[in-house]
Queue: 2 jobs
Job 1
Amino acid sequence: MLIAKVIGTTVSTIKDEKIHGRKLLICRQTDEKGEFIGKPYVAVDTVDAGIGDLVLTAHGSSARQTNITDNRPVDAVIMAMIDTLEVDGKVTFQKG
Amino acid sequence: MLIAKVIGTTVSTIKDEKIHGRKLLICRQTDEKGEFIGKPYVAVDTVDAGIGDLVLTAHGSSARQTNITDNRPVDAVIMAMIDTLEVDGKVTFQKG
Amino acid sequence: MLIAKVIGTTVSTIKDEKIHGRKLLICRQTDEKGEFIGKPYVAVDTVDAGIGDLVLTAHGSSARQTNITDNRPVDAVIMAMIDTLEVDGKVTFQKG
Amino acid sequence: MLIAKVIGTTVSTIKDEKIHGRKLLICRQTDEKGEFIGKPYVAVDTVDAGIGDLVLTAHGSSARQTNITDNRPVDAVIMAMIDTLEVDGKVTFQKG
Amino acid sequence: MLIAKVIGTTVSTIKDEKIHGRKLLICRQTDEKGEFIGKPYVAVDTVDAGIGDLVLTAHGSSARQTNITDNRPVDAVIMAMIDTLEVDGKVTFQKG
């Protein structure tokens, strides 16, 4: 999984019928401190995440292993909200 | 999913029989403003996208989860047209 | 799918029994003009491609969705020969 | 598989129900000497790994082929602890 | 598939039960001449490869399509030994 920050939202009227009603959020990969290190991508939300939240995203076929994404044409899913990250015994991120 | 802009078309006479009749479009990844950040790739269209449209593309096995791409040898699909992208409360892209 | 040029051939005597008789070609990713932009990789040919041909390759599990590659340990397949690529209304590649 | 070092831990209260009870560790890819060469990512532990351990991680759908990860929305798994790495006849890493 | 050279071996006592008895070799991607172009990764051997051999590796779910890797948590497999590589009509690699 990637550590990522939710940075934005998407609106799509015309889309595959299987993704109607799914919330698609713009994410960017971060490091263990929550600092951006990657390009933006879009993931389906399953944990009611909001802008600024640090989350974990699963990719590829693994993104379809939730009740919300099963058999749908999506390749990234937000499957956990991050409360705390700790590296070498020190807290590097703590949800505000 | 990747945010991408449709930039072109492909014509192929000789191809796997399972992709006959599928429209294969050339896309390039963009950021949340629609600015190019990636190399060109080819995706199957399922939403009647046109040149210049900003779209979402799903990759890998997820690209085969639509009626148009099911069981076919394709690894990228355009599964949504983007109307609006919003980052940190500001509209970064609006369909013209 | 990636746009790629076929640049070479491979010979392997010792290999998994499921790929005996499959033609494995060396490809390199190109842009929409046919200019190289990537590293070499090897794909199974399903369209009788030759050296110098511009082709499309599908990757991952999608590479196993042809009659020639089904259930075999291969992760890239040439599934179309490119006749023409057109970007923003201009032909960027035309088969010679 | 990637060679990686376990560098940290994650805590998530809100997450997909299928990953409750799974230990999610922060890893970073290393080379054959255990030197970091990649960005951090998060993998499910199946071998009781600890901070500082050198491990192997499997990715994508392969990450779901263990009893602990089967059918769950996770795309990386720690499936082996590394005792020794040897390159060109020399030991490049030995577990302390 | 990637062209790769086998550079080393791994020893793991604690590992997922499904990979017991599998030989895990350290590989590095090469170009068509056998020159290194990538980072090290670990693949399951199915062709009795040795240190210094040039091989093909298949990745992702395709790595599980051999009798030796079926349903196991591995994402890379050595599925062919390379005898000869030829680019543009010239031999670029010949097994010694």
Note: The beta strands of chain E are 2-11, 24-30, 36-45, 54-59, 76-81, 84-87, 90-94.
Job 2
Amino acid sequence: MKRTHTCNQLTKSDAEATVTLVGWVKSVRDHGGVLFVDLRDRDGLTQVVFHPDYPEIHTAAGRLKDESVIQISGVVKPREEGTINPNMTTGEIEVSARELIIENLCDTLPFPLEDAKAEKVNEDLRLQYRYLDLRRDRMSGLLALRSKASKSIRDYLADEEFLEVETPTLFKSTPEGAREFLVPSRLNPGEFYALSQSPQQYKQMLMVAGVERYYSMARCYRDEDLRADRQPEFTQVDMEMSFIEREDMYKTIEGLLVKLWKDTLNVDVPTPFPRLTYVEAMNRFGSDKPDTRFGMELLDFSEDFAESKFKVFKSVLDKGGVVKAINAKGLGDISQGEVKTMEDAAKAMGAKGLAYIVVRGDDPKEWRSPILKFLSDAELEALKTRLEIADGDLILFAASEWEQACNILGRIRLESAQLLVKREKMSISEDQYNFLWVVDFPLMLFDAEAGRHVAAHHPFTAPVPEDIEMMMEDPTKARSQAYDIVLNGSEIGGGSIRIHQPELQDKVFKEVLKIPEDVVQSRFGYMLKAFNFGAPPHGGIALGFDRICAILGKTKSIREVIAFPKTQKGQDLMASAPGPATTRQLSDLHIGVIAEKTE
Amino acid sequence: MKRTHTCNQLTKSDAEATVTLVGWVKSVRDHGGVLFVDLRDRDGLTQVVFHPDYPEIHTAAGRLKDESVIQISGVVKPREEGTINPNMTTGEIEVSARELIIENLCDTLPFPLEDAKAEKVNEDLRLQYRYLDLRRDRMSGLLALRSKASKSIRDYLADEEFLEVETPTLFKSTPEGAREFLVPSRLNPGEFYALSQSPQQYKQMLMVAGVERYYSMARCYRDEDLRADRQPEFTQVDMEMSFIEREDMYKTIEGLLVKLWKDTLNVDVPTPFPRLTYVEAMNRFGSDKPDTRFGMELLDFSEDFAESKFKVFKSVLDKGGVVKAINAKGLGDISQGEVKTMEDAAKAMGAKGLAYIVVRGDDPKEWRSPILKFLSDAELEALKTRLEIADGDLILFAASEWEQACNILGRIRLESAQLLVKREKMSISEDQYNFLWVVDFPLMLFDAEAGRHVAAHHPFTAPVPEDIEMMMEDPTKARSQAYDIVLNGSEIGGGSIRIHQPELQDKVFKEVLKIPEDVVQSRFGYMLKAFNFGAPPHGGIALGFDRICAILGKTKSIREVIAFPKTQKGQDLMASAPGPATTRQLSDLHIGVIAEKTE
């Protein structure tokens, strides 16, 4: 090694030692002709002093710009009394430089590398100079955190006797899923691989192969429009186990997350995690990934409004819908603009409008609301009692078909919470980790557009055993053995117990999903075949590793925990990808571009 | 868990316990009406007995076929005296079944799963039923070995304070390298990603970013013709370190391999590994990846033949070439057919023919060779003395330009060794691990066809400091700071110290490689730019993880250590990939197929 010590190592006990350090110049300060350089490496900082007594290196040091790379040799000196910095490991000493090698001078930086300043810089500029952005304390900390998280998970899974197995990413196209990246095959003209969206099929084959416990930190690919903080390639902690039931999976994942939180944040997460059925999660929180760090639960007022004079509610109820409400306590000071934003959000989710009551005083007659005049005393009293209404509250309603009403009011609940946090009337701690399982999802959804059922999770998901008959009668009423792991309102993973009986799987494809036989064969034929050769009961899960790292790092965007992320247009601004291909490349691959670049 | 014990757990001390086991039926045997089932799970085997006293499950067990999946509950019984199997953990007991659940019946197997039999089966059939092939003892052992190897490497690198960083695989096209897989971009019409051939550029950017020590078990992609045991996607242990010299890398990798061999094979590998310069490796073994488990070294007879009457040798020497020879001791009984095969191999490498001498007795006059009559007594004596020739030996020659002569005779050396092993006159142990470093490679090669120099390793490789001037004069004579790690004749990894000075890198691109400025800018512009913002000295390496696992597993092909490999035509015979894409998919991607499938 060129260096004798890192920049986070030297203390008073090293005084008078001759040392060699390497690193980046964090800053150069001139105090009365003496130059003080803060030298930074991955581990920390050390103060290096260039004295005019050593004129050659003193002059050279004068040319140093921030972020240049240097190697220095010198003598460790205790700092003078008033200049000791007790907050730094190396705060007791400085190194008096005797030799200086300038490895690499730094040009003028395109943006400052102090976190507070850099985070106000245009993200595209940061992405273009990602090698500089990653030098910042916060970003290098996030890289280190991700590495530690990966090690924690792998250690846990190895201890639990999972085998790490790598599965192919050059897979076949499965057009019914999310949009895929295609890869033309040179050796098979006119044919394409698809980049694997997940190792789902391969990991089930590994169970048939007798692996029993599989894991992989699997790179997965989805060609999505990159709204909502998605990336074209992402990493999931992918697992599958044989001879298990749901309880085994809960225990395994809880153990993994407890260790992960302990190893990375030194936080003790209590177990077992609460469990909510899908129905309960929707009813209480209006979401299948509820944030339970605050209450503001949804209440159902369908019975109270069964005979209401308010036609909007009544007609929904008559059609079998529901009326639900929340009390956003203390949000009675909501502005017209804020109401409008909420209403727009509700409408975007299919609501016709947003009914609400601003509570003033104790007497419902004094409350303010366009709907107040339609409500009977009994109805108002029911609201008041059940929602524990007090002066200054805001009551918000959703009336619609059950699932839609839940989703709308769940969204309104989150918006309300944000407004309350902004007003400092509520606090939602980033240091509180409310893990929970959501279970008993419906097995099937009805796709009204296509006029047929589609798998809510995926078509290999097993129904709850006692619901198999129901699956044939009304597939949306049958519960599946799927589970999601939710943290603070984010789904951080999900999976299911799979079907391992070929007859049942066949029935799901043909009789429930009504997929034509030839399509079943071309897409899933080999899996159905494999299930005839000794397939064990099995189930699995996939955890979103990028999302988990973002939560551990208390950062909003997964782009911050990915070393070289793509932009929303799928571009790597640093390396300039994607780009044009040569005619030769395309002809080798038997393809041509059929649309000009239109922008 | 459904089971109470694995199939490798129960002993005499569990007698009379009621247990539940799950697994695959390895075999069913009927002894006088009593059915004996060997039940197998990932961990081992347990004998389960179905007695006619329990008629219901006895009848059901009678229908079981090999490889069916069952769950049984029963009572542990000590085996009778003569039936104890001391070679099995569970050999003292059997489980008398009381309950049987048949989870999955197995169809008739397409091929037998005993290793010896299965390995004679057509590989395509095995690949089509990979989920069965992987159940075999040998294959499941290889999967477990790979998982263990990965864990060993990761633990070592974490202890050495390497950060694991994931880099993108959707990269830009770099058409000068190996052939790439292209991925059309939907969001950027007419543009393409290339699947990364290695994280080379990103890992160098991570060094500029100050990561200092990076590693990744990186999936890499090359669209090669899949001869010679290559796979389109493969895994490399990818590393890069800042502030190091070559010695630091040697020490780090030696530590990694020592731990890996200990953890997986319990073999102690001695360090430091021997080092050979490229020139020495070529001169002595005729290869830059020499197998040193046996000698048969090449000797140079150029001086001895300087005035030879044998025109073939003389004319080569007059043109500055060399004459080299090996003594394949004891191979004097080589057949005409074997000589022909060797000669063909030599010719395929550019030789005009293969000169050889079959040694009979002690007197050179009695030796047999078409070239004997041209050789002087002094020349024969030189051969005899320096090659320590004895009765029954075979002397083989190569005469050509130095590099070609070395390569040809190196190949002949390996062929000779194989023939000697076949004759049991030599043994090359699979349990001997001769690691070595090959260093001081030439920096540049001259591409006669293109009429210019090309980088021997890659264009970021640093020259040996004292050879920088030579690089400008004669680039092929300058040595690089590249290194290969070689094991038993296989290159298992390679890397280099990189250039971190933008001026030197620029000079290499423009003055040595003569790459036009615009091409340099479009391909490497961002790297050259990054090197102006505080780039530390750095170097790295990549180890071929698939090849290493194959060597650890004592298997010839990397296909055996990859869970789901592709065929030589790049096909996944199990899942049927690649396949056609829909018109909709192609139009979304702005491409069309321009050649019909021609087969």
Note: Residues 294-422 of chain B form a domain with the Gyrase A; domain 2 fold (CATH 3.30.1360.30).
